[in-house]
């Protein structure tokens, strides 16, 4: 009889663009024991054709209802892949920006949560003040403030929509803590995944 493989752990980092998720992913891959596979929005967007861009990276606001059916399938496929990696004993770190601000509610996070709910999952909210995010966007993408000095509407929408579910196992402010410090907090929480997880609670939202 084949020996049953112990499921790999899953870390989901949920936050707005430029909140620091990618840097935390690198810190986890460089310092945690075992194999850690990165599956997330950036890697997934690299796999899809131009006519489906930005795919699961579609920002809040309901701007592309023509993509939404495909986005539901993409999210389901990505989380099924996460599930397979875990069941084969591989650890997975996922960097995403979950929101439900589409042309109509898609309830993607509860759908995805149901795919992985019985696995060892840590859901981490990655927070960052909007002024710090703007500074990072300017440095990375040469984005600008509006002509009147206000925050661009699309940046505001990300900040308002990405954490609306409000249910996490751990929350980290990346304007206060470095990627390595964030990884240490996450590692501490990974030591005890026996308690009911945020993912299980979110999965139950679709059944209530």
Automatic annotation (TrEMBL):
Keywords: Transferase. It comes from the Bacteria. It comes from Virgibacillus massiliensis. ATP binds at residues 15-22. SUPFAM superfamilies: P-loop containing nucleoside triphosphate hydrolases. Coiled coil: none annotated. This is Chloramphenicol phosphotransferase-like protein. It holds the Pfam family CPT.
């Amino acid at each position: 009889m084949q020996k049953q493989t112990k499921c790999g752990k899953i870390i989901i980092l949920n936050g707005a663009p430029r909140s620091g998720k990618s840097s935390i992913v690198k810190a986890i891959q460089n310092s945690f024991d075992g194999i850690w596979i990165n599956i997330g929005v950036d890697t997934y967007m690299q796999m899809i054709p131009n006519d489906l861009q930005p795919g699961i990276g579609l920002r809040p606001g309901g701007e592309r209802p023509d993509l939404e059916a495909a986005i539901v399938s993409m999210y389901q496929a990505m989380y099924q892949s996460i599930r397979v990696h875990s069941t084969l004993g591989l650890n997975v770190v996922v960097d995403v920006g979950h929101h439900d601000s589409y042309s109509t509610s898609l309830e993607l996070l509860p759908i995805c949560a149901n795919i992985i709910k019985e696995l060892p999952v840590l859901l981490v909210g990655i927070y960052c003040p909007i002024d710090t995010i703007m500074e990072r966007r300017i440095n990375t993408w040469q984005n600008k403030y509006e002509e009147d000095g206000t925050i661009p509407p699309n940046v505001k929408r990300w900040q308002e929509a990405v954490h609306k579910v409000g249910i996490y196992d751990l929350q980290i402010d990346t304007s206060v803590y470095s990627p390595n410090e964030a990884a240490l907090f996450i590692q501490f929480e990974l030591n005890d995944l026996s308690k009911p997880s945020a993912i299980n609670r979110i999965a139950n939202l679709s059944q209530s």
